[in-house]
Amino acid sequence: MEHSSGRVIFLLALVGIFSQILGSPVSLKNPTPAFTDADAWNFLETIELLYSQACNNEMTARWKYITDVTDENEKDSAAALTAYQAYQASVQKMILDQFPNWKETLTNETIRREFTYLASKGPAKMDPTKVAQMNDLQFKMESAYATATVCEYKNDNCDKKLALEPDLEEKLRTVTDFDELAYYWNGWHDALSKAVPTSTYKEFVGLQNEWAVANDYKDMGELWASPYADGAGDFSAEKFENEMYDIWEDLRPLYEKLHAYVRMQLRKDSKYQSKIKKFGYLPANLMGNMWAQDWTALDERTKPFPEARSVDATQAMIKAGYTVDKMFHVSDEFFQGLGLLKMTDTFYEKSMFTKPADREVVCHASAEDFCLGGNTEDFRIKMCTGVDQDDLVTVHHEMGHIQYFMQYAKHHFIYRDGANPGFHEAIGDALALAVTTPYHLQCVLELDLEIEGLCDEDGSRSTIKAVTDNDINFLYRMALEKFSFFPFAISMDAWRWGVFNGSIPEQDYNSKWWEIRQKNQGIAPPTPRNSSSGGLDAAAKYHIVGNVEYIRYFISHIL
Description:
Elements: H1 4-23, H2 37-66, H3 71-98, H4 102-105, H5 109-119, H6 128-147, E1 150-151, E2 161-162, H7 164-174, H8 178-195, H9 198-214, H10 220-225, H11 237-267, E3 282-283, H12 299-302, H13 314-319, H14 324-337, H15 345-350, E4 366-369, E5 379-382, H16 389-407, H17 421-435, H18 438-444, H19 469-482, H20 485-501, H21 509-521, E6 523-524, H22 542-545, H23 551-558
Parallel strand pairs: 3-6
Antiparallel strand pairs: 1-2, 4-5
């Protein structure tokens, strides 16, 4: 294994090599406006392979870190990211030096679009020391999330520590005792709010905003909004945010009906009547999910027709002998059946499908493109998969990302991305949605859901009949999954937009987090959270510490 210091020196040396190489193919050493679209295209062709390789170096180091969370791998990954950002900055500088006034001079829209992207990628005007500091803070937050644990309930010796995935997630889905659920919910939020205090997050936000300003945006919220520009010419971050709020307000009435119905059903259980007010908030620990963003765990206890079957294929999968490996191959066959591409051998050789027993990993499911475009078969999924319906859906979702990666691999680097972040997520969501239908589960995958009349003996769809109680239960379960998500998704970035633009000051980080979530989700923590302690409950969600813009998921659900 290479020593961290050696890898840091190697990666930083690459930046200098890249810069020297980039300076030679385009004979524009002296800045001059006398360049053509052809000159600009030659420049793009020259940097294409180099840009891809720089990205691959960063992704390779990051993969090693997220699949083996150690201090050494964290340092290597941070160094690789810093080197990649320095390379991006060198490309920015070359565009400014060699193509002055390119916005006014270039006429080809494709070339202009590539230049627009490249000119905004990287901290050309930001102090490299601050860039490294920003990266270091993000890695430390991610590491805290990946390694956090909670002692088992009523285990005074704490000889069994539970990680979020799969341990705490399983507890929140299956346990019904209010106090035990409150213990696990509080335990996770306490662990992360202490590991990532508001002071740390404020420092990180300040550096993020410096990055945004270095790329000619007023703050990171405006930079995050920029991929959603519709080309109409009057786009602004404020307009975009208001459009998202307007969409949410259109959805709110139906969500509030779902919220009221679930509250009524839960109050029928005598052990919850004193915990849930008739017209009050729902306790966050009772929703079957750490963030109350998915309520499907409440399906059996709240469904409209208790005697009719629910569509949860988990037991049928176990009965049919499903394994994690089979789940991925079933998903692969599904995509091939649509005429799409087969997963590569490298995908199966190098992906991480289950949580290793011998090391810490970042369990949050993700699909990764190793950046080499048409010259590679290297696409991977990282996931701590379990054999259940929820993870079967997630497998299809993540493989949807991989399909998208493979389909656009032949294009220039800047076009190897989604039309916008929300569209990328929508690809996976749309395909995963088809997998959850009773017909697909029982008739195509031959899982025994014990629902009569779905398909004929040959597996074909039966003649459509009147709507049944099973159908209503299925639609209700979909509402528990999809509609419960909207208010959480809008709350995530509504809070961060306020943090980025300064309208939410540090002393209000935690109180505003809960104020926004109570307003939108109608949930409350099981016990009051101490907003004066300096802790940050928002850090209990991966996308906060991982610095992933979240409105993409809101948009993907709309699409």
